[in-house]
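Hi R.,

Here's the chain you asked about this morning:
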Amino acid sequence: MGRFIKITLDDKTRAALEDGNRRDRSHTFRQRCQIVLFKAQGRKSKEIAAIFGCGEKSVNDWLHSYLKEGINGLRTKAGRGRPSILSTATDCAPVRQAVMQHRQRISLAKAALEEDLGKEFSQRTLVRFLKNLTADISG
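And the predicted structure, written out as tokens:
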């Protein structure tokens, strides 16, 4: 039988985890805060894993990360996941120009962009990129 991970929280840390669980925009960060809070209540990792529908190893990995780095250890590190096809730094101007030229047909804008940029992507990727652009402008 392996070692048990024991988490004890002071009032300030518990409040920070509860605040992160309630208010943070990231769903995964909220879940990870909840994992630590459940463990601090004395629940078993197997029970927590069943609640979240993940493996016991995942729960224990996040608990170890919390013990090592604190609450910031529960955040997803930069550079994880697939790199984006379209970049706001380099592709913003060509995308805007193509969309302005083909306002009524996104498929034509996509075809023109694929030719100009030398990248292949789906129409859905282009729409998502445009939505993120407008969110960045208005946000």
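The helical segments are 11-23, 27-40, 45-52, 56-69, 88-101, 106-117, 123-138.

Let me know if you need anything else.
M.
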